[in-house]
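Hey, can you fold this?
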Amino acid sequence: MNNPVKTAKAAAPVQIQFRVVPHDELPDGTAVALSEVDGLIVAWIGEGHATLELCTQLEDLHRTVTAQERWVQTSPASDPHRLERPAEGLGIAHVAWERVSADVLPDGVLAVPVERDRILVWLLHEEHASEQLCAEVSEYGRRIAGDGLWEQRWPSTP
């Protein structure tokens, strides 16, 4: 007997990629530019602002966050240039990158997420991420998380 109830195929988790590129591939004076489509966001990082090792660790950590659906992308299809606009200041959630000294992190660890309800802060090894990069990504975070372009699905407390 055929089962009349069809199960929905789960969508693949959003991919988040970090790519180190020559400075001439970014707008003048910037450390990072983001591009986004449904299911993918890419951070194009200027040479000297992040190491390849940091980018690899960040991709691995973000893969876990998206696979667990703790952060979910809302569709950019109706507004493909939404990341290019400044934050509206809605303050829905807070995402930021902060540089920390090597002695704060375990040996060999270059990035650690610290997360709770409405907050995600990435602690990054200061020798692997520039101050400018962290400031620019944090500004993107004000737009992406603060304005609800990505939603945190934190377990609610009773």
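Oh, and this one too while you're at it.
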Amino acid sequence: MAGKFNYPSGDDEMARRIQQAQSDATEQSASVARSIWPIIEYLTGANGVAQSSGSWSSVSTANVTAIVWMDFDDSLDASMQFTAPSSGRIRVQNEAYLKTMANAVLSTGVSVQSDTFIGYEVLDASGFRVNTLGERSIMMHAEVWSTNQTMVLGMTSTAIGFVQNLTPGGTYTIRTRRGYRGWAQNASGSVISMPTGSWFSNYADPVICAINPA
């Protein structure tokens, strides 16, 4: 009895072999496509890169010695959903133009310092953060020591981090967050109240976030 690939001799045999080969190839292609489509979509779709649409700035006239992370804002922070790769690990690269300003005003001299941060968080489907906010952040630091002077620093900066232990095939959201801090100190290095007329300022624009399987 003829097997799957045994056909009567003649032209019909060749035609049937070609038809069978095409059918097998179609089935195999569909099977492969179903298995790798999430990866293809992840690598080539719009999910790999996100960018903020607006610039952020703040001015403070009082000490903020611990980092303050601003609430997520979809116009000021970058955000996207992604499917975790089979490795359960992603590489995160954030880039932004950051500017930090510090203004010192005091008759005997004062140091005003300021930091601008761009961090990121990865949330699972329930909204639980699965990484440490602030880990591998972009940071810009400025310090001015004077009786009446302003320091302004700005540059495009980037930072690379990794998030692991994700559930392969799981849906996650990554979004950037803005942070800042600043304070005044005297000649001995002790933190003092921000003198009247002194201030610090923070700025970020634009924020770009890119992810890849790792």
